Each structure stands twice: as C-alpha cells, then as structure tokens.
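Quick log. Single chain, no ligands specified.
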Amino acid sequence: MKMMLAVCLAGACCAAGAEGETGKVFGKPVKVEGTASKMMAVCLDGNRLYAGGGPDFYVFDVAEPLKLKMLGHLDGLAGVRQIAVRNGMAYVSAREAGLWIIDATDPAHPRVRSRFDCCELATGVDVAGDVVFLGQRQNGVEFIDVSDPDNPAHIAMRKTDESQSVKYRDGYVYSGDWGSGKLTVFDARDMKNIRQVAYEDLWGYGDGVWLKGKYLYASTGHHAKHRDLATLPYKGVDSEALRLHGGAGPGAGCGHGLDIFDVSDPTHPQRVGRADYPPMYERGLDMWTPRTSANSDIVFCAATHNGLFAVDCSNPAKPKVVDRWTSPEADHPEKPSCCIGSVAVGNGCVYVAGMGCGLVVMPAKGAAQETFDQGVLPANASFREPYPTDEGEFWVWKPSKPGQARAVAVAGDVVYAACGDAGLHVLKVKPEGGFEKIGELVGHPRVFDVQVDGTRLYTAEGLDGFGFYEIDGPTGFREIGRLPQIGSAHNVALCVWTADRDHLVLSSRNGGCRLFDISDITHPKDLCRFGKCPGWDKYMMDEPIGGGQYIAYNSANNNITWIDLLAQPKPRVSTITKYNYISLSNGICRFDDSRALATKGAGYMFIAPNQGDPPDHSRWKVNPLPGPHLSGIPRKDPNGTRVVKTCRINREVALYDFADPEKPLFLKHWKVSGNPDIAAFHKGKVIIPCGHQGVLLQKKK
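-> predicted structure:
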C-alpha cells in the first residue's frame, strides 16, 4: 500500500489553553489523505492504528509514527463510535448498529465476523480476555462473551446512570456516566458476581475514563456538577439551547475539564485534582476522551467542539492545561473547533479523529506510546444471567436461540414476537394461560421490530432491511415487498410503525424516521423524513386520531411533531413545539379519536392534533399519576380503559385504569428482570416484550 502523505490542515491552529502557551506541546497538524472527512474513533495497538467514522474502518501501519501507511479499509459498518482492539480483533461500538466484531489479523483484508444486537445504543467499548464491556447510556453496561467471535453472546447487564465510556483493569470496570456526572465502578472479576462497588461525583457530565498507575483520569463536559460554584474559574455561558432546556445559570457550560482520582482501592476512589477548560455548550456531538503517555505526565484530552487539550498532571493535585489545539469550521464560527471525537497517543505524536478535520497526525512533545496492562482478566465468560420471572404475576416464553424480545404485535389470540438475533416467532395465547409456539419466520434470522395490519405483517430485519408479508393463516408468510436500509446502504433496519393502511413509518434509528406511501406495496414511495436520531426507545404514536388524520412523534428532548396523513398532495409534517417536549423515557399513544395521551416525567397530559406551544412559551400542564414515580412509554387497551406504561431504562412496568381520564387509578407496578419494550393488550391483560427475560403475559387482571 502506498504511504499516506499529508497536507497541513487549512484553518487548524494551536491556541493557548486556560493556562497554556501557544505551541508548547502540539506541532503542525497533518491530515491523513485517503480517509473520510468525518472520523470519530482511533485506537493504537502496537504498530497498528485503527480508525473509523461513519461506515468506514481503517488499519494503518505506524512503525514510522508520522508516516502512516494504510494497510486495509472496510466500509458498511454504520456509525462507528469507539474502537477497542485485542490480538488483531477490533470491537467497534456503532450506536444504533450495535457492536461489530472485525477480524483484522490480516490487516490488508479486515472482515466482519459478526454484528451483535446490544440492548440499546452501543457507545463505550472495551475488551479483556473473552469479555467485551459495552456502555449503553441509561441502560448501563452490557457484558458480552466474545470467545466465539462469530457468535457473541449476552452475559449480563448492569444499570448505570448513563454509561458513555468504559475501561477495564485488573477485575474492575470503570464507567463515565453522562448527565448525572458520575463515575461508576463495577467488580467484574467474575461474570457470575458482577456488582457495583463505587459511585463517585464528577465535576461535569461524565464520559471518557482512562487509567495509569494508581490514577484514573475522567474527562467531563457540559455543566458544572457537584461542586461549589464559587470555586469555578469561569462564569457560566448562555445560549438559546440552554434556555430551552431549563435556562442558563451558574456553572452553565462550565463542566469541561479533567478529573483525577486515586484508585489504589477501586472500591473507594479518592478525588485528587481537577483541570478546567474554557466553558462552552454545544449539544449533539458532545463526548470527551482522555489518553495518557508512557514517559511523561501529559494527558491528552479530546473535547469535541472545545478542541484537543494537553494537560500536565505531574502534580495530580494541581493539573494544568499547557496547550490546546482546535480545527475551526468556516461554516460554524461560533464553535471553537470541529468535533474532536477521539485521540490516541503515539511516539512523539498524537492521532486525532475529527468530524470535519478527518484523521490527523500531529507532533506532540511528551507523547509516547504505552502498553496498557489489563492485569487479571475476568472469569466465567460462559455464564449467562438467568433473568428470572415472578411466576405469580406472569407467564413467560423465551426463544430457544439467544435473543431479546424486542417487540410484539397481537392479532386475536396470536402474538408475533420480534426477538432480535433470535428472529420472529409466532405464539398462541392458550385458553388456560401462557404461550404455545406455533411457527416462525423462516429464512430471516434477525427481526428487531414487527407490526400487523389486517393480513399484512411488517418487519425490521437489521442488515436485511424491511420486510413486507401477507399472512396466510397465523403462521404462513408470503413476502410481497422489501425495502433495503433507508437513508444509507450502511444503516440497520430497526423500527417500523403502521401509520395507516397506506402509510408506513420506518427507521434505522440513525437520522430519524421516514414516511412511506405503501399503497403499491411492491414500490414503496419515500414521502418525507422527520425527527432526529430517536435512540433505542420507540417514539411513534401507535394509531392516528382525528378520523385517521393525525399521528404524533416524540422527537425526544427536542419537540413533538405531528403528521397530517390526509393532507394533499402528500402528508404534511409539522414541528410546532419548541418549548414543550418530552424525554427519551416517555412517549405518546392514542387515547381516543380526539386526544393523544403523552407521558412527561412521572405524569401525563392530553394533547390535541397540532397542539403547539402557548403564546407565552409556557409549559403544558402535566397531571400527576398515582402510584410509583415512574416515567415510561404508554399504550392504551383499544378495547378498554387500561393504560400500561413501560420503562426500559429502569426495568419497570405500571398499569392504570383511565375510566375517569381526570382521575386515573393506579392498578399494578412490576419490577422485571429484563428491559421491557412497548407493551400490548390481549383481552385486557398486558403482554410485554421484555428483552432477555422473554415475552411476558399478565396472569391476573
């Protein structure tokens, strides 16, 4: 392969940090040619540099650290976020697309060995021995057996506040938790006994963590947390985005920096010091990554739109920013830099992944590649969490092949269960209770979502796209149409909703949703796109209201969108709220023909079609719900007055009676062992697709 020569980055600069000198550490940046302009992840292992962004994955030889040689390239991964490498095997977190395992033992020909259906958005990743640790936001850290790279298997899940990045060493897993600003530590020496042992405050929103010697380095961002605001070296910042999300105030945007802990005893981390970066606030691309150097006390920290920082930690109690590098974007002068997603430390240089500057190699004083010693490796990777069920409350069915119960569609006494990597199964509710399996969708091994409309069945099948079937009896499937991945050939088909007989909403979870005209099922017509990346939770309303005209969508933490299905010449999308929105753990469902029921926090509200913000920008009235304080996505019994609310994040389900819409009654609350997705009803009883626990059917009304 030819050597990748470089050009100096136009517009890139070295700038003084909080206490730094221009050019004290960083030299002239050089872009690695032949790579994508949007890069997110870098990982250095021996003489190999692994880098990725979007669909692309690259392998380089860095025997000459400043003269990279491309050895191999692979595309089609969709949304590369982080990379961890062991023995030439790369483990790539890809948000919506889950975990990719790439065999790069022949670096000239990297190849995909498997894609694993994780619980939620695959964000942080590390690997030790036969176990991958995958951080997945509010759902926590998933532990995955990768002893067979062609067939990775779920071991267990442990809840955290919002795991963004993870790091393993000597039997312990450290998680940087985002919005809560926490460092969570798990004892992971034995997969049979994974337990949380520490939970410490960070001084900003949490993300990247790294270890060297007895110290842990935690990169933080956004708002100052858990500290006396009088000690901040900066005043808070103000922006429209901040005002929309609770208002600018003391410490706003001042959470950017580096926390240092002594983890000589991992069960009792002790705060040692803190370095602060200049304040800023930019939503969307907001992640922060630290990396240490072998022969110096410099810690290199990627801080997205705040740039790249060099922090002198020779005195851990008083770390000091000594240099800062930014790569400004001409189209966004309000941002100090394009998003610097990750950094790896080489010999005499750093390798930088940026969403705008691409892959960059830059001389750096004090940079020296180090070998990370993982110490004792985790035991019992073959263990599988049992996910027990309260037999007094539920009947349960699990597929014989490992997989998560992701979705259910009910048609009479028949339940179609989408079980992720275990495919689609047809279950019959037995008169005496419980399920009997009566069929499955053959030839389509992975199904992540399912909807039924009359005699039609619609599926989201991952890399195989979206399938449209005519049902012949309950167990016969005749394919009548298929749509490949939408938006990009590299996306993964994950969510499907039936808006009405002629309209279907599809999503890869990457870039929002698309509305299709399916009046000619063999040639679906793409009508429009709406919403943003909806994450894992499913935010589309289940059925239209207003005589079949309006259906709503929760663009989580941003706005509520209405789709007018009967507008001419084609359906019209209206995003009419700016100050009123609901979170990623809440949702919307049909209540009656004139109202939708939305949950907000632990409460509820009714919204009418095209209901926008009040003229004074005030918030809509939220009514309290009786019973436990619980957020969740609601669904109403189409043949009754009951409403069920499921919360994947906290593994909880609640049931209410809305016979009096102004005074709903609390009926039941369940703590379940799996991650419950959107529930359905069968003859007044709740059916819950509950992740690795299986499909649950309520026993008693």
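The mean pLDDT is 93.
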